[in-house]
Structure prediction request, 741 residues.
Amino acid sequence: MSVSNLQTKAEQRLIQDCFDDLMKACERRISDDGKQRIIKAFEFANNAHAGVKRKSGEPYIIHPIAVAKIVVEEIGLSATSVISALLHDVVEDTDFTLDDIRNLFGEKVAIIVDGLTKLSEEITSQQDSKQANNFRKMLMTLSDDVRVILIKLADRLHNMRTLDSMAPNKQLKIAGETLYIFAPLAHRLGLYAIKSELEDLSLKYKHPDAYNQIQFRLHNQRERREYLVTEFIKPIEEQLKLEGVEFTITERLKSIYSIWNKMQTKGVSFDEVYDLLAIRIVFAPKPNISEKRQCFDILSLVTDIYKPKPDRIRDWITIPKANGYEALHVTVMGPQGKWVEIQIRTQRMDEIAERGFAAHYKYKNASDSENELDKWLQKIKEMLQNPESDALEFLDEFKMNLFASEIVVFTPKGKMVTLPKNATVIDFAYEIHTELGNHCIGAKINHKLVPVSHPLQSGDQVEILTSKSQSPQLDWLKFLITAKAKAKVKQSFKLDSKKHIEQGRKIVEEKLAKFKIQPSSDLLKKITAFYNLSNREQLYSQVGMGFLQLDNLEDVLKSRRENKLVKYWKLSFGKSSTNESTQADKKIDKKAPFILKEDPEQTNYSLAKCCNPIPGDDVIGYISSEDHIIIHKRNCPEALKIMSQQGDQIVTAEWTKFKKLSYLSRIKVSGFDRVGIVNEITNIISKQNNINMRTVMFDTHSGIFEGDLYLYIHNVQDLNELISQLMKIKGIDHIERVEKM
Prediction:
């Protein structure tokens, strides 16, 4: 059947319009021969996908065309990549094979398409996740051709732009996966614009209220911001013209996700995020004068006009970032007492900053940066070649290799080594050589002796000290940062994994025996769910290696006894099991929101210990077993990890009203000390709000007080109301909720 018979005239017009847009984007960048090959690839893909629709209802071919347009227009790749993007779903979704692609479009395109084709078979191993395995397979091709990952990022960007048509639980899975892996990956490859858009779109689906609120505030301030920018850049423009510099000045607004992230991590309000705005000066460098010198000349010119913040000058030209980024950054005091960041870069630096490694191929002098990419790809190859690591472990290791903030340290001979921020002495030792790491007992930094766990600072010169009697220690895993170091330490202990599992099983059985309880499948499921683990092997292994002490075992057993009592009363005096079944007996519907009720009979969920959600928090559910769900806050790092690795086990969750049961919450209070302030705080909590306090600790020094309070709260609304009342007390400056108990 021909394509025209499977598509309406309106669909054909829409497809042709989209393809015409793609060809316009290719106009200047791609040769005539390349354009002919792209037309051939489009006709082939259009025929292959004919009659197939996306969830949104539009013809499927619109998606590959959109991905190809991102590839050429926003990443700047060539004809081979555009063709691969047009064909990226053909092998997976149609009857055509990889051999067909190879015969029609050549070996290079076939290799890239193979890397982009997802795994179709289910993974049966309990520890492995289909999601994680798909990613691992894609990276195997990445290590041969970086274009695979660049096209995959374009594919993910278009999927995020069209996520509205998906079910809420799928939106959460895709947004979580994007934030955990794809946005850091875009950053690591220097694709700043794509990284920012992926983060913003993920936030839109994970925290829609926060996203809309920040967007609204930014829109409201637009006119004031434009006036400030005009006033600010006027004297800079005048000086640059006097110096005969060919330049453009643009403003860059901090992304919605960056603002939200700063509000979360620093505990500040929208109005307290001072670096909302950045000004970018991009200039054409004059010949025969070093780019670096010209950038510093412009920096000098700017700081003559506006006073700089001394600790906010960043030189990414002398030592570029690991993703190739080069620029000078300075934060200056602008009009009306506002701090403004200025970024100074040449046109070459600007293109690399926007298009990352894809732009490096255009510049012959960028070999150092390309080597940096090669080094990173080599690390990925080493990880892929480790047969011991399962897919989930691999994904964790890969994530650790996507560090966005890095430090630069030096060997005793002056060789420069780039490491993630907070990397330790051991991380450095393993980065140099495995044997150096295995036998490390400490280091000398600037002639001062430090332990293996000592975090390194940029500029440190590190001399590793070793001993033949030293061997890798399990305790190291608690402070190691780099994937390479963690993998090497784990590898040395993998040989004993069976011994650890057996040892862990004995410890668990002994602990249960103290309570006169025999281990059963149901009980072990409850224990693994309580500690956020995947299965009993993982439980035994963690206990056997000493990472898990089972200190809260009594709490698990207590809740189990309560559940049994509820079941007993239901069976003896309750409702007919044939007429009414509890939510616990129903199979969990992943498409519908999981309703959290204030009901002792609803025993099929528990609250995660990592983020301690309370009723009213923005939450999701993780299906840990057939009849049990663990509730996490949406912004919990553990939840983000689960979404990216086992996204099919995620459900949306909603609270009903909770007014009887209380949940432990922690808040920190700080301000100016005065007589009676502690008494006022405790009065408002216990007398006015009738809230029970478990622990209250206050400390004062130099006229400043800090309080740490553990309170039993019904829901988020009550907690926010309490914080609002406490903020009215004279002397209190800041209150924040703390997730960790």
